[in-house]
Amino acid sequence: MGDMGFSWSHLFLALFLGLALDGAVKCNGRITSSFTRKVEKSVDMPLDSDAFRVPPGYNAPQQVHITQGDHVGKAVIVSWVTKDEPGSNQVLYWTENSKHKSKAEGKVVTYKFYNYTSGYIHHCTIRNLKFNTKYYYEVGIGHTTRTFWFMTPPEVGPDVPYTFGLIGDLGQTFDSNRTLTHYEMNPANGRTVLFVGDLSYADDYPFHDNVRWDTWGRFTERSAAYQPWIWTAGNHEIDFAPEIGETVPFKPYTHRYHVPFRASNSTAPFWYSIKRASAYIIVLSSYSAYVTSTYPSFPGKYTPQYQWLAEELAKVNRSETPWLIVLMHSPWYNSNNYHYMEGETMRVMFEPWFVHYKVDVVFAGHVHAYERSERVSNIGYNIVNGLCDPVNDQSAPVYITIGDGGNIEGLANNMTEPQPKYSAFREASFGHGIFGIKNRSHAYFGWHRNEDRYAVEADSQWFFNRYWNPIDDSTKAHK
Ligand SMILES: [Fe+2]
């Protein structure tokens, strides 16, 4: 029988190895990546960097960026800055192969921040667009014009495939530039960026040097002028600086980045929702009040964000938009010592709803690393009962921290040890994510670190929709 390659010793060896490997997977599905990277400080690109190049021409529009302009994706907010004079607020736009150019009229705003005066910041919403259509648009009418293009999303529907990019805590370092390039070059082809907060890091400069808001706008234009970036406010958007007389929170951010919050009946630009293809995306603010009354006579009262979210979650129709995605800045489940438990009070308020409404995935930033959780919840705890361990919960979201855009503050590589059970994979490297929805039941998430080639995924997970396909989709269950 030797010529058939069989022997009892081989069988025992195979059995032993099989049991040993099986045991390794079952005993510890958690992964703290051992990937080693260069430990170099992240440095902001200099002001004369190519990435910040000012477009030539008198009053040329710069810092051009777009975002969704209504609730369903038939409108786009176009924003840009002119420096020499206000110029025109008009946007001309047309479809490919069309001879007719439509016009829309926007508004211009300016602001002062300590000793800085902004350029003329224009915002113009173009409406009644056709779904799934390529549009060109032109700004700077009357002086130097510049033309860009974007694709509108497909009409909202349950099986519409769509691919989102995930970027957080980007800043404007050489690493930030690498992250953006990797996103642009990724063959997975993200069509809309879900940005989880902390944009320019201008507030790391003396007096929150707002020139660094302008450079960030010019740096990101190469992507944000061509596909919508969906904005979430982070702590670096607060710009609260009473020592220099700046006491209005979010002043530069709200002047520069508009969002369609009124379309979802929100009363402030920090929390709102959009539908896009087969996704319902809820944006929350970690830095706006969210607590409520538990007093029986006033249930659900006190703060606008709480009241809005209570009504909002009840509106989501999973037969129309199966994928329920939440964006916030400060993560609830993170096992990094950096910002550990900063999201805890919001988790206490909102987590029971996320489980009840079966949120598929929560993306957050803030921590400058990547981490993916198991599906867990921790909603049984009431201070006196001692039930404070997160438990596996197939109705709970997966929590992904993607605050690894590459900003000046560097990587967060000081992690809680041992790795908590709720943490499936963690690594302190810069990178970005891609969430690709295939249909109502399946989506695929990949995390891409900047050290790898563009197509390489350093971590990934198939997501099974919590409403249509709520079986265990953890990577541990599918090894
Ligand atoms: Fe942050």
Protein architecture, described:
The chain is α+β, with helices and mostly antiparallel strands. The chain has a domain of 250 residues: Metallo-dependent phosphatases (Purple Acid Phosphatase, chain A, domain 2, 4-Layer Sandwich), CATH 3.60.21. The protein is 16% helix and 25% strand. The chain is built from 6 helices and 26 strands. The strands form 6 sheets. The protein has an 8-stranded mixed sheet with strand order 1-23-19-22-18-17-16-15, with no helix packed on it. A hairpin with a 2-residue loop joins strand 7 and strand 8. The N terminus is likely disordered. Bound molecules: fe (ii) ion. Fe (ii) ion binds next to loops. Its EC number is 3.1.3.2. Its cofactor is Cu(2+); Zn(2+); Mn(2+); Fe cation.
CATH superfamily of one domain: Metallo-dependent phosphatases
Per CATH, the architecture of one domain is: 4-Layer Sandwich
Classified by CATH, the class of one domain is Alpha Beta
Terminal residue distance:
34 Å
SS-based structural class? alpha+beta
Bound molecules: fe (ii) ion
Mind summarizing the main beta sheet?
Answer: 8 strands, mixed
Number of strands: 26
Mean pLDDT value? 92
Number of discrete helical segments: 6
How are the strands of the largest sheet arranged? 1-23-19-22-18-17-16-15
Helix content: 10-25%
Strand percentage lies at: 25-35%
What is the gyration radius calculated from CA atoms? Answer: 24 Å
CATH topology of one domain: Purple Acid Phosphatase, chain A, domain 2
Low-confidence stretches: 1-27
Question: How does the overall form come out from the CA principal axes?
Answer: globular
